[in-house]
Amino acid sequence: MMELITTYAMPASQAFLTLVLFWVAILFGKLDKKLNALKTGTDGIQKTIIELNEAVNHAELAISALKTASNAANEELSAQINEARKSGETLRFMTTAANAIKTPMPRSEPAPRQSRSFDDLPPIDSERRNKWGGLR
């Protein structure tokens, strides 16, 4: 039995180790390709870095444009606020002056009520008055 194991086990283990050696050689080949690509810059990282730098530059330009636009809007808004304050002060002065010089309006007496003559009214129908209960 021992002979059988040594007869088949040794070549099987050698075949297994040969397969593992080929697998490691393939992995080293792939690793070598990746390292060469990193050295030469053909792996796309260099292109990505250039694109990121361009995007950062565009963002900086946009931020500076926003700052100048906000400063201009701030100055315009400040001017409008100052103008509104001046208008408010002018209006306050005008209302104070108007209140100081206003004269009370004369009150008019209400017109007297017109008297009605009851002679031209129709006579009261007592049948109708009794029908509905009349005055109590």
Overview of this protein structure:
There is one protein chain. The protein is an all-alpha fold and 136 residues long. Among the domains are: 12-43; 44-97. 75% of the residues lie in helices and 0% in strands. The mean pLDDT is 83.
Helical stretch count? 3
Distance between the termini: 140 Å
CA-atom Rg in angstroms: 54 Å
Strand coverage percent: under 5%
Keywords:
mainly alpha, 3 helices, about 140 residues
Short description:
The protein is an all-alpha fold and 136 residues long.
Write the layout of secondary structure elements.
Blueprint: H1 2-40, H2 45-101, H3 126-131
